[in-house]
Amino acid sequence: MKTKKIIISLTLSGVLYALLVSFTYVPKTEYVAIQQKKWVAPASADKIANPLKGDANAAASGKKLYKAMCFVCHGPKGKGDGMGGAGLTPKPTDLTSEAVQSQTDGAIFWKIAEGRAPMAGYKTSIPEKKRWEIINYIRTLKQ
Q1: What is the pLDDT of residues 74-117, one digit of tens each?
Q2: Closest residue by Cα to residue 50 from 62, 64, 42, 40
Q3: What CATH number labels 2-141?
C-alpha cells in the first residue's frame, strides 16, 4: 500500500512539473543555445555500476515507475513524444535512440538523479533502487 501511495504521489508530481515547465517561456535566443548543448554526464558517472543489471523483475517494476514518472514527457514507447513534453525546450530525449542506449547505466543514473532543465532531478524523490529499475526498463526500449 505504501508503494502504491508513493507511485501515485510521484505520478502527480511528475504531471504537475511537466505542466508547469510546458508553460515556461524561453526566449528564441535561449532556445537556440539550449538545443545545441549536448548533455554529457561526468566521466565519474560511467564508473557507477548497476546493482540490478539483467534483473527482469527490476525491469518490470521499472516499467510501472516509467509509466508513473517518465511516460508523460518521454511517451509510451520512450520516443520523447509524450504529451507533457510537447511544449518543452529542448524536447524530451528519445530513450530508444543509439545516443541513449550507448550510454552507461551509470551515466543514465546520474542524469535521472541530477536532471537538467526542463527535466527535474529525481535524486531525492525517487529512491536509488527505483532509479535503477527505471534504467533496467529503459534498456528494454532499444530500437
Answers
A1: 999 999 999 999 999 999 999 999 999 999 999 999 999 999 99
A2: 62
A3: 1.10.760.10
